[in-house]
Amino acid sequence: GESVGLHLPTLSVQEGDNSIINCAYSNSASDYFIWYKQESGKGPQFIIDIRSNMDKRQGQRVTVLLNKTVKHLSLQIAATQPGDSAVYFCAESPNSSYKLIFGSGTRLLVRP
Amino acid sequence: DGGITQSPKYLFRKEGQNVTLSCEQNLNHDAMYWYRQDPGQGLRLIYYSQIVNDFQKGDIAEGYSVSREKKESFPLTVTSAQKNPTAFYLCASSISGTTNEKLFFGSGTQLSVL
Fold this sequence. Notes:
The structure holds 2 protein chains of 2 kinds.
Chain A (H helix, E strand, L loop, with lengths): L9 E5 L4 E6 L5 E9 L6 E7 L4 E3 L3 E6 L4 E6 L8 E9 L6 E2 L3 E6 L1
Parallel strand pairs in A: 1-10
Antiparallel strand pairs in A: 2-7, 3-4, 3-8, 5-6, 6-7, 8-9, 8-10
Chain B lengths: L3 E4 L2 E4 L5 E7 L5 E7 L5 E9 L2 E4 L6 E3 L9 E3 L8 E8 L9 E2 L3 E5 L1
Parallel strand pairs in B: 2-11
Antiparallel strand pairs in B: 1-3, 3-8, 4-5, 4-9, 5-6, 7-8, 9-10, 9-11
């Protein structure tokens, strides 16, 4: 199991700035990674995914970077908007399995 | 609109009572999942099913039971054996339940103990 706590790490950014949310994953055999966004009281919403044969993937206003050497994943959000305020989870899938292992999340707060 | 529907949104359980959470999907996905989320934590897998009439335990299956009689439906029963049931429960589905698939989530059920 993962080490978890009641208080999520929080990233506070000014509206219009770029946001970078980081995630350290645990299994060097993981070959698929996903970022989800979860607003309060709602289910997680898919943002972007990346396979281990890539180190960067871009979507609309979002970019995911994968550094397999240090087992690090990051989500970059360009021109952060108030609607981006949410908790962001990374998830990894080890050994080409069906299973997703979720991190404990980072709360993003966007200041107007 | 295609999607995953969970009901009810809020549910209260009395001590010693079993309660059932509903999950229905019209995405024609083969695989369905149940996750538990505690405040400030990530999601933990309770049960999953890759095909009708078959399901497997996840990481925290004790005190829970499921059935998969129809492709569209995957209800979760929280039994009286689950001593700490208060949590946010999320149902999800994926196309086939095989490798490297993203999950689509419902809007969740908040279960609280009276």
